[in-house]
Specification:
Chains: A mainly alpha, B mainly alpha, C mainly alpha
Strand content of chain A: under 5%
Number of helices of chain A: 8
Radius of gyration of chain A: 21 Å
Shape of chain B: globular
Largest sheet of chain A: none
Shape of chain A: globular
Strand content of chain B: under 5%
Oligomer: heterotrimer
Number of strands of chain B: 2
Number of strands of chain A: 1
Structural class of chain A: mainly alpha
Structural class of chain B: mainly alpha
Amino acid sequence: MELAFYLGGLVAVIATLGVITGTNAVHSLLNLIVSLIAVAIVFFALGAPFAGALEIIVYAGAIMVLFVFVVMILNLGQGAVEQERLWLQARTWILPAILSLVLLGTLLVTLSAGDGGRMISGDMLTAKAVGRTLFGPWLLVVELAAMLLLAGLVTASHVGRLPRDRRDDKKGGN
Amino acid sequence: MALTLLPLTFLFPLAGCLILALGYRHLGERASAAVGYTSVGLAALVTVFIVIDFMFGDQTPQRLTLWTWVAVDHFRPTIGLMLDGLAITMLGVITGVGFLIHLFAAWYMRGEEGITRFFAYMNLFVFSMVLLVLGDNLLLLFLGWEGVGLCSYLLIGYYYEHTENGMAAFKAFVVTRIGDIFLAIGLFLLFTELGTLDIATILDKAPALWQKGNPVVEAAALLLLGGALGKSAQLPLHTWLADAMAGPTPVSALIHAATMVTAGVYLIARMHGLYDLAPTAQYIVGLIGALTLLIAGFAALAQTDIKRILAYSTMSQIGYMFLALGVGAYSAAIFHLMIHAFFKALLFLSAGAVIISCHHEQEMARLGGLWRKLPLAYAGFVIGGAALAALPLVTAGFYSKDEILWEAFAAKQSGLLAAGLVGALLTSFYTLRLIVGTFHGEPGSDKARHADPGKGIQHGLPLIVLMVLSTFIGAGITPPLSDVLPAGPGEATESGHTALELMASATAMGGVLIAGWLFLFRRAWLGRVVARGPGAWLWHLWHNAWGFDALFDRLLVRPYKVLVRWLRGDLIDALFMILAALVRVCNAVLVRTQTGRLRTYATSMVLGAALVLLALAMGY
Amino acid sequence: MNGIPMEHGLALAAVLFALGLAGLMFRRNMVFVLMSLEVMLNAAGLAFIVAGTAWGQPEGQAMFLLVITLAAAEASVALALLIQLYHRFKTLDTDKASGMRG
């Protein structure tokens, strides 16, 4: 159990590093999927199989496929990779990196200073328990999530529409 | 009976003004002129009737209160009229001379743009002026005083298409306004001290309240004098009158020679009781008169515009009146005022005749040789000029000016007397120069060569009547002033009068002879003298009237403009502008942080979050 | 087996979040920016799961569900915007879309 957690965590961190430093969009996406699956393994290790399943199905499956589609539509070539390499210079990333490290350090220090000692046994919290929570006291949250998805759907279909020709363009709608 | 007709003297001109103002679009040129002079003519007829009634009556002052203006506690100024010898003299001059000038204006203004407007202003002027002299309290007098000032402004700026005319009107208005402020403060002072503005009451109360030479009465007298100086174009508020010649010539004749500019003389004569109590102020009146008559006399010598010569001559003659007032000879001043109104109106109207005949030419250098072509105007100039120069016995000016000199002599003011005699010499000089320059010699331009003489009764009648009045016949009119004004210092004695008369006559005659010799036979030599050296310097100095305009420009106008420029950028505003500038600087700095780059925004957000978290962690 | 200390789980979430944040800040290509955003959201979800399992409560997973919903909505809108950006500017460089410069 512990082994799965630590290995999964390590893989997730390395893959994420690959995501943010990659120059090829497709490679980065694959790295991201790896990272997500690694996190899903961590979920299983922690004893949250429902969340782990959702992570793989929705995140790594649906959302990442969306990304892949978009990257395919854009059809970025070798020029894009060169461009990325050019943009990724030390002076670009040194300040954000330091800032992130400072934040991370602060978080870790705060964590270690907290009332530690609680252990995660890895007992299963099954989908049944989650379902009881969601459709019991949290019903309103589910409704809110539905509203959010609807709003996202409408927005995406509106914003993502491309003008068919110049006349539409002139109308200035999109 | 006659008294009830008195309001008609100013209601006729007011009615004329209203008819002209309201019927602006419907009245033609002839109709406008007819309304203009008929209204004043009717007023003059009423005046004649009143004068006859007054002269054959007991000549006591009569009062007619029309209604109470306002009533606030014990402050009850009335629309009240007072008819006495002084008022009736002024009334006669205003309506009589005014009517003649209106009649002449009907000829002069023929074919001018906006003739209806001209006559409306002229009638309004007569209305205001009559109100000024008839008012029995100082408030009503002040109303008329401001009314004539307004009309003067409007008529100087009559040809408003030219900017310089507008500026001349402006100058006249602003300069007289300075005097009017003094007058207003004087009225306030009198009211706080005496509690009334009624002239008769003031003159009654003043001797009881104040000792001779009391500082309060001196101050009041000086403040009234300030008003008189502005209106009567005396030193140092005299600079506007020469520029006021921008108006049509009948306006110069009526307002800037015969009536309005003498309002200051009237005011001081009217308030003589105060000046009797204030010897210092009275002395200053005489001093200013003497100075003005000399300065204006010299300035008149070096003018080239015939109207400007007459303007400076007017200042000089009013200086004589002030001199008379200054020695306590109020009757002599008023007598000279009346005679001066006759001959100066004559001179201005003759000048107007010359100007129209020569197609609007008034530069002396471009006139000349006109005496054969314009005999009537020439006669007017000769008779008026003789009266101005006070040629002995035959002219009216001799009698009035001689009386002033005699009073000055009797008052033992030898300085003032000397100034008067020098002034008489100067008067002969510039008068002769004017007449010779305009009517003799060779014509200076085609306009003068092709002069057409004026015709018609409107042109001839005023000139002839004024000519008659300017001779000794005019001097026969004795204003009934003895009941109103105290006797001058010269009435008690007669010793030396004849000697002085001879001396004054000799001065005037000598001046005329010398000037005649110089201007008729030594003209070329004179031209050489003024062309270079000290002669040129003096010419320049006198031509610019001793440089008063430049002096005032440096002393008052420019500092005022600098002050205005300062205040335009309001100092307190500047303080707030610092705040605005600070905000602007902050804005400029903050605008730079808006790069429009997503990364920068994200980074700065994280930076903020990191700082907040760090602060929290430190505190932990 | 003693189980996993909760701090380790949270530390992992923090590390992933910091990595996502760094990527968000220094990438110029919008695709990478969005991927960094996904990483951060995922890290937040992980933190919920860790806390939920540590206390033995299902609410953590319920909250994760919400996070995933949010991520889905965000991804769809953001990708639509990305397509618009590419269409208008012919590039994915976020610095080019600097219409908000002061």
